[in-house]
Amino acid sequence: MDETEIPKKLQNEDEETISLISSLPLDVDFDGTKLFKYQGYWYNDKTLQGVLHFQRGFEPKDMDIIIASFPKSGTTWLKALTVDLLERSKQKHSSDDHPLLLDNPHGLVPFLELRLFTETSKPDLTTISSSLRLFSTHMGFQTLREALKNSPCKIVYVGRNMKDVLVSFWYTNCAQLKIEVERSILDSIMFESFCRGVINYGSSWEHVLNYWRASLEDSKYVLFLKYEELKKEPRDQLNILAEFLGCPFTVEEEESGSVEEILDLCSLGNLKNLEINKTGKTLKGPEHKNFFREGEVGDSKNYLTPEMEKIIDMIIEEKFRGSDLKF
Ligand SMILES: Nc1ncnc2c1ncn2[C@@H]1O[C@H](COP(=O)(O)OS(=O)(=O)O)[C@@H](OP(=O)(O)O)[C@H]1O
Fold first, then answer.
1. Is 138 a known active-site residue?
2. 169 CA distance to ligand 1 centroid (A)?
3. Nearest CA among 209, 165, 176 for reference residue 74
4. pLDDT digits (tens, 9 = 90+) for 58-83
5. Which of 2, 50, 55, 80 would disulfide-bridge 105, Cβ 3.0–4.6 Å?
6. Interface predicted TM-score of the whole assembly (ipTM), two decimals
7. Which domains are seen in the chain, by residue range?
């Protein structure tokens, strides 16, 4: 790409960055947004800027915890569960100032590239008072890992059946653009973009597969959870998460119903109906209510045609072959 074609947002970057951006492969997604392929993944200009700032300026701390996911895979839920797990010794669920009653999970666990590092590679992180910092990201594993250097931060990833991800993505996109949820948007360009992997953070298959592999290679530092398993056996999965984060439930907690309390507070039905999530907005724009919809496993069956399902199944079969990864 010619340097004069660099999107406005990126034009103030230093020479080295401009030169890097000009060398990246380019494509456009379903709504005509320009995407850049960086370290194997497609990013729009705003996301790419956040990713580059993050890589340049992030200083990891050993106790950091990073929640990672491909968009629409259960990020909001995992953030809520993690906050509540870590807060449980400090905050009673009944207290009016429980963090989940005061802010949306995305406000409590900020996105690195989408919030903290969007404008600068040196954001002020001193406002995070806790020694244990909780961040989140949708960026690809290699890109994240590079910035973490060799720090022993823990990464928790949540993956989800791609067909449900696509339908969730379609709904949210329409909600955010405040347009009717039109089949035609899904049927035509969005489905095609998704299958080509040319959407922000795509492709979804490479994304999930690379975190999966990392979790197998480095299970002490990368935990891979599945949305479907969280739905099916939430108690067991919450215990796995608590163990991984080094804060397992005590016998007394188990007996006193602490696990159920967390699951209830973080349930879709409960979060969706909290005032803060019915009326609030994130700092960067999206309304809180758009993070909560049906939360059903297999909901895509109600929207994708058998032909569409077959195409996605074929892609997944090919991409996941030999990996042991299934949804
Ligand atoms: N608490 C809870 N429990 C179960 N499911 C939940 C919960 N919160 C959000 N959701 C569902 O997750 C989908 C949104 O995905 P993300 O949270 O990853 O979205 S985002 O990437 O952070 O924008 C979206 O899925 P769909 O309902 O299939 O669209 C949400 O409804």
1. yes
2. 10
3. 165
4. 999 999 999 999 999 999 999 999 99
5. 80
6. 0.99
7. 32-320 (3.40.50.300)
